[in-house]
Design brief:
The chain has helices at 30-42, 48-53, 75-85, 114-144, 163-172, 190-196, 199-208, 226-241, 258-270, 289-294, 304-307, and strands at 2-4, 19-21, 59-66, 70-71, 90-93, 100-101, 106-113, 151-153, 186-188, 219-223, 250-254, 276-280, 299-301, 314-318. α4 (114-144) packs across α5 and α8 packs parallel to α9 (258-270). It is built from eleven helices and 14 strands. It is α/β, with parallel strands linked by helices. One of its GO terms (biological process) is NAD+ biosynthetic process.
């Protein structure tokens, strides 16, 4: 926290109220994830190398650096890692999550007991590299579809335990989040349809079933073929003609190329329906994302953003005395 006094506006002014700059609180998952990672790294013996080679009273400084261009995400984890290793360590952020930085950019400065700096290094860099990689991959995909109006979103294909952090990284890269988990939206996928007896059977249960979602819960249904989409469109068009609310808010077109996406959008519009059109399958940086967006996708969902993004190359470099 940094504080400074606000200058008086006149000699007769009463004592002014200090202006205070307050760092935003860390997301709730950060400290627990860092503690688990440090416990894994330190085991029961601690950092035997640091104890053997670095004097107990030594102090120093180091800088976390991006060795390549990318988008930053995970600086809260950097601060938490060093502070949990030794509360005497001070971490000064030199960049912010969401920043697009060139190679060589300093991201944070760490000062204090040298043992703590070398002990916390790997955990701090692991989180930062992984999450910045997600943010960088997301930014690349967002850039590819710029101007089309389509939004880039993530999926639930995340590292177990790191979902919230990876989804924040997607936002840092300019993307948006799909549902967080099974609890916050209805998403009917191919296995639901197969096991429940088909598209119409699923829609009937969603509309009138004993556990049908309430009006505040959005419903998304995945289709693999135009035939399935036609069945869905006929069901909701009949409801609309009867003066009833359509069941489906979002249609997910799975593994359809641009031509089929264009046909699917035309089918829906021809039925007088305007659900959000999401496209998944093969959506990744350097792929067909722009063509899919131009074909009519409102949303492009990509599991690759979180399960296949290459880590950003980050390092800890000594700062000369």
């Amino acid at each position: 926290m940094t504080t400074h006094a606000t200058p008086s506006s006149s000699p007769s002014s009463t004592l002014s109220t200090p202006a205070v700059t307050v760092r935003a609180p860390r997301p709730a998952d950060v400290d627990a994830l860092v503690a688990a990672a440090l416990a894994e790294d330190l085991g029961t013996g601690g950092d035997v190398t640091a104890r053997a080679t670095v004097p107990d009273d030594a102090t120093g400084a180091a800088v976390v650096v991006a060795r390549e261009a990318g988008v930053v995400s995970g600086l809260d984890f950097v601060a938490a890692a060093f502070e949990q290793v030794d509360p005497r360590l001070v971490v000064e952020p030199l960049a912010a999550d969401g920043d697009r930085v060139p190679a060589g950019t300093p991201l944070a400065r760490v000062t204090g007991p040298t043992r703590g700096i070398v002990t916390g290094e790997r955990v701090a860099l692991n989180f930062l590299g992984l999450l910045s990689g997600v943010a960088t991959a997301t930014a690349r995909l967002v850039d590819e579809v710029a101007g089309t109006g389509a939004r880039v979103v993530d999926t639930r294909k995340t590292v177990p335990g790191l979902r919230a952090a990876q989804k924040r990284a997607v936002r840092h890269g300019g993307g948006s989040n799909h549902r967080l988990g099974l609890h916050d939206a209805v998403m009917v996928k191919d296995n639901h349809i197969a096991l429940a007896g088909g598209v119409t059977a699923v829609l009937e249960r969603l509309a009138e079933g004993p556990e049908a979602p309430g009006h505040m819960v959005r419903v998304e249904v995945e289709v693999d073929t135009l035939e399935q989409l036609g069945e869905l469109a006929a069901f909701d068009r009949a409801r609309a003609e009867a003066g009833r609310r359509p069941v489906v808010d979002v249609v997910l077109l799975d593994n359809m190329g641009p031509a089929r996406v264009r046909d699917a959008v035309a089918l829906l519009r021809g039925a007088g329906l305007r659900p959000v059109v999401e496209v998944s399958g093969g959506v990744a940086p350097g792929g067909a994302a722009r063509a899919l967006a131009e074909a009519g996708a409102d949303v492009l969902s990509s599991g690759a953003l979180t399960h296949s993004a290459r880590w950003l190359d980050v390092a800890l470099e000594d700062e000369p005395a």
